[in-house]
Amino acid sequence: MLDIKDLHVLCEGNQILNGFTLTINKGEIHALMGPNGAGKSTLAKVLAGHPDYEVVSGSISFMGQDLLELEPEERALLGLFVSFQYPPEIAGISNEQFLLHAYNAKRKSEEKEALCQEEFAPILDQKMEAIQMRDSFKKRSVNEGFSGGEKKRNEILQMALLEPAVAILDETDSGLDIDALRTIATGVKELMGEERGLLLITHYQRLLDYIKPDYVHVLIDGQIVESGDATLAQKLEERGYEHYLLESML
Predict the structure, then answer these.
(1) Label partner for 38 (CA 20 to 30 A): which of 44, 165, 216, 227?
(2) What are the backbone dihedrals phi and psi of residue 132, each rounded to the nearest 5 degrees, phi first?
(3) Is the distance from CB of 168 to CB of 81 less than 8 angstroms?
């Protein structure tokens, strides 16, 4: 589904990713862990098509297409979802309007008829109930005045509605209390299935206590330096990243 090979990325002249390679197949959950500055969020932004990041070499194939040749909206319509660490606020557009537009854009790409607001309402209500979002959030401007946890929950609501082929969640656990983390993790697990892939980008073990990954990868200085199963995340929680950083300096 998503195949990244030997990816090298610059931002403002600085090398951020340095030979990054990763493949995500159907039904797989991957966790990407590493210290600040390792390149985790850079990967998410490159996949989304952020213009500030320059891919100097390497390739990214998604659903059989060259992802780097696609515009950001084309990537989304093809089935790639990226949840950012700091979701933006959009004043003047209600959450309901935004979600209806996104939902209908996907339906159009699938050659399906657009839904009116009345037809969309029960679908939205069902998804909001699943992640325990209050009805009042439908009428509020997108993320405006939302707490950090509410913004993250709103991102998961978008993912639940769009049902992507591959989801990239960048530090979804950041700023969440235990109850919110459990709720969001439940929503993510309900979305996963044999036809979807998931990449969790995180610093910590706690999200992985709720969403058990098939594979865990350690990112240091823009490269994956170790991969393993879920037990690798537990080892990282105990020993940290210091020994990897020391090895990178030798």
Answers:
(1) 165
(2) 60, 50
(3) yes
Q: What is the CATH number of the domain that holds 213?
A: 3.40.50.300
90 forms beta bridges with 142
DSSP string, 197-233: EEEEEESSSGGGGTS--SEEEEEETTEEEEEESTHHH
Q: Is 46 strand, coil or helix?
A: helix
Residue 129 belongs to some domain of the structure: no
Q: What is the domain count for the chain?
A: 1
> Is this structure's pTM higher than 0.85?
yes
pLDDT in tens, 2-60: 999 999 999 999 999 999 999 999 999 999 999 988 999 999 999 999 999 999 999 99
C-alpha distances (whole Å) from 5 to each of 64, 96, 201, 248 are 14, 38, 18, 21
Is 175:152 a contact under the CB 8 Å cutoff? yes
Distance of CA 240 to the CA centre of its chain: 23
Convert the pLDDT of each residue in 73-95 to its tens digit.
Answer: 999 999 999 998 788 899 999 99
